[in-house]
Amino acid sequence: MHKRLIICGIALLLCLGASGLSIAAQDMGDEKPKEEPKKEEPKKEEPKGDGIERKDVPEDFAKLEAPDLKAQETIDAGKKTYEGKCAGCHGEAGQSDGKYSEKLDPKATKLADAGFQEAVTDQYIFWRIKEGKDGYAGEGKSKMKSFGSMKDAEVWELVAFVRSLGAPKVEILSGDEFEDLMRDFKSANKSLRGAGHDKEAATKAGEKFKELAPKLGGYDGNHNGKKARDEADWKKFVKAMEDAANDYTTAAKAEEWDKADEASKKIGESCESCHDVYRKRHR
Predict the structure, then answer these.
(1) Residues paired with residue 219 on neighbouring β-strands, in sequence order
(2) Which of 27, 145, 218, 238 could, after both became Cys, cross-link 170 (CB 3.0–4.6 A)?
(3) Mapping DSSP to helix (H, G, I), strand (E, B) and coil, where does residue 137 land?
(4) Which residues is 227 bridged to in the sheet?
(5) What backbone phi and psi angles, to 5 degrees, belong to 80?
(6) What are the tens digits of pLDDT across the range 164-188?
(7) CA-CA distance, 178 to 217, in Å (whole number)?
(8) pLDDT at 132 over 60
(9) According to the per-residue pLDDT averaged within each range, which of 1-15, 37-51, 119-133 is highest?
(10) CA distance 161 to 75
């Protein structure tokens, strides 16, 4: 009897143990494995400008310091080199329409394109001129030759001209349109002088000069509609007038008349300096 009780007890324990294991196994089966947190991949920076992925500029080139690329004499020198070495593929105006362009696959880069100009650094252009460039992967066989034998100064001149291709072009008026512009300037000048310290009149005169100043681009100071010889000069005059007109308008709105009077003088000086320089040149 005693043995039978022991055997029954052992059997019961085994049943309970098996049941426990079954429940434990069921519980473990219901439990979902913990997922490791996903690692965020660094966001890939979108290519600037035209969206084309370009190689990084080698360190030796990236650290080069560009000279003044807006100096007109530098741009002019670069233009001569460009016409002899680059225009055949890239086109005279950087539109990839040179005499050899039809044979190229891929086509030469449109250097005047705003997207290209935004996407690349001066050092990138310098590097590509110096070392050349293979065509894009899988697209034809054409590639840009290197001009490694050129002196650095000559290459920077080319870079300056390439940059100038992307500069906004100013429409040159002629005939009646030019005369209308001159009349508008005379009228604006008269309004400026007559505005005195009247807030509304002064603000209106300042806004008119702000509107007219950009239209000056490309003209000499002789009231004859001829194109200015030196682009750098008229850009300087136009910028001076725009800045002065902005200062004048801001001061007039705030009724800060000392500042407005000072800005008014600068508007007059920007007019006189332009006329004076070009009258001397065109005598």
Answers:
(1) 227
(2) 218
(3) coil
(4) 219
(5) -60, -45
(6) 888 765 555 566 777 787 788 888 8
(7) 12
(8) yes
(9) 119-133
(10) 5
**C-alpha to C-alpha distance for 144 and 96, rounded to whole angstroms:** 13
Q: How confident is the model at residue 233 (pLDDT cuts 50, 70, 90)?
A: low
**CATH class for the domain made up of 59-165:** mainly alpha
97 to 81, 87, 145, 172: CA distances (angstroms): 18, 8, 18, 24
For residue 151, with 0-12 CB atoms within 10 Å meaning exposed, 13-18 middle and 19 or more buried, which class applies?
exposed
Instruction: Please tell me which residue, 189 or 84, carries the higher pLDDT value.
Output: 84
Above 90 in pLDDT, residue 158? yes
Phi first, then psi, for residue 139 (nearest 5°) are -120, 85
- Domain layout of the chain by residue ranges: 59-165, 176-281
The residue with tokens 């407005």 is 260
CATH class of 176-281: mainly alpha
- 144 beta partners: 133
Q: Are 84 and 161 in contact (CB under 8 A)?
A: no
Give kind and range of the element (H or E) at residue 154.
Answer: helix 152-165
Rg (CA), the chain: 36
- Are the beta carbons of 217 and 170 closer than 8 angstroms? yes
Give the Å distances, CA to CA, from 194 to 90, 178, 204, 262, 265: 53, 24, 12, 15, 14
| Neighbouring C-beta atoms of residue 146, cutoff 10 Å | 13
Cis peptide bond prior to 33, omega within 30° of 0: no
For residue 166, which of 257, 93, 61, 57 has the smallest C-alpha distance? 93
Confidence of residue 41 (pLDDT cuts 50, 70, 90): low
Are 86 and 96 in contact by the 8 Å Cβ rule? The answer is no
Helix/strand/coil percent split, the chain, to 5: 60, 0, 40
Closest CA to 162 of 123, 214, 211: 123
